[in-house]
Amino acid sequence: MSSNQRIAVLGLGKMSGILLQAFLKQGLFQPAQIAATVAHEERATTLAAQLGINVSTNNVEAARGADVVLLGVKPTQIEDLAREIAPVLPPHALVLSIAASTKLAPIEKALGTEKPAVVRAMPNTPAKVGAGITALCRGHWISDEQLALAEKIFQTVGRTVVVDEKHMDAVTGLSGSGPAFIYIILEALAEAGVNVGLPRDIATMLAAQTTFGAAKMVLETGAHPAVLKDEVTTPAGCTVDGIMELEAGGVRHTLIKTVKRAAERAKELAGN
Ligand SMILES: NC(=O)C1=CN([C@@H]2O[C@H](COP(=O)(O)OP(=O)(O)OC[C@H]3O[C@@H](n4cnc5c(N)ncnc54)[C@H](OP(=O)(O)O)[C@@H]3O)[C@@H](O)[C@H]2O)C=CC1
Ligand SMILES: O=C(O)[C@@H]1CCC=N1
């Protein structure tokens, strides 16, 4: 970003905090280009000291004249926030909403200008280590250049994929919420390692690296996961006995229901 462009991060919570720290670390924005807000004064003071940026509780002042605005508040707060900042946003401002559930149309309507430029994004917390995935969908008046800018911003924290808005709740259930599901699976695998006699730190490292390695195999070979699974499964060996237990435990059914429920919840949250 050029040094005279400004970003406002409104609602500097867990997810937008991860993004902002990555932007700073990668040099996408310098501290002087950033203004952020939270709800509570004492949190604003702490974050300003921690991050060396301007953090306040004043959304209007933070958004005034901003080139890029990242909305990081809860889904039910997005429309009010958009209405609050609408009068001070320059016509060219690119608004990025990371809220689950809240659709583009009500955000565009709340901004009220003739052709507001809004991109909806669903990032995830592995962004913290540069291994995030962000799904983006373009608002009604987003130019190719603005979409490219949104992609560039989120590519500082991992991969991006552009989807139709109709897929955003499904994305939320799979990759937005997904890290939490994987952590539980990882924790259970580590517990399993402890159960068969491994020290906990070694069990956790084995579980995490195995998960990472398997994911990297899928991403880099492009092979179907079932083909990769077959490579591991020696006839009459150990793996197939393990797989029988996994299937008896209904892991597929449980994961399908898990993502389905999270995606349904994403439909409900904002109430639009
Ligand atoms: N956590 C995740 O993994 C992901 C979250 N999201 C989305 O990100 C959004 C935030 O979630 P998350 O980061 O988990 O939640 P947090 O509760 O951590 O963040 C919400 C932030 O909004 C601030 N806030 C509340 N009201 C206002 C206001 N009126 N003006 C300015 N700031 C305000 C809060 O301030 P204070 O700290 O002072 O209370 C808080 O910092 C949600 O819409 C969620 O759907 C999207 C993808 C992944
Ligand atoms: O739990 C949530 O609602 C948010 C959206 C995806 C991840 N966290």
Automatic annotation (TrEMBL):
Pathway: Amino-acid biosynthesis; L-proline biosynthesis; L-proline from L-glutamate 5-semialdehyde: step 1/1. Transmembrane segments: none annotated. It comes from Granulicella cerasi. Its EC number is 1.5.1.2. Residues 165-269 form the Pyrroline-5-carboxylate reductase dimerisation domain. This is Pyrroline-5-carboxylate reductase. Catalyzes the reduction of 1-pyrroline-5-carboxylate (PCA) to L-proline. Residues 6-100 form the Pyrroline-5-carboxylate reductase catalytic N-terminal domain. It is found in: Cytoplasm. The gene is proC. One of its GO terms (molecular function) is pyrroline-5-carboxylate reductase activity. InterPro entries: 6-PGluconate_DH-like_C_sf (IPR008927), NAD(P)-bd_dom_sf (IPR036291), P5C_Rdtase_cat_N (IPR028939), P5CR-like_CS (IPR053790), P5CR_dimer (IPR029036), Pyrroline-COOH_reductase (IPR000304). Keywords: Amino-acid biosynthesis, Cytoplasm, NADP, Oxidoreductase, Proline biosynthesis. Belongs to the pyrroline-5-carboxylate reductase family. It catalyses: L-proline + NADP(+) = (S)-1-pyrroline-5-carboxylate + NADPH + 2 H(+); L-proline + NAD(+) = (S)-1-pyrroline-5-carboxylate + NADH + 2 H(+). HAMAP family: P5C_reductase. The keyword Oxidoreductase applies. The keyword Cytoplasm applies.
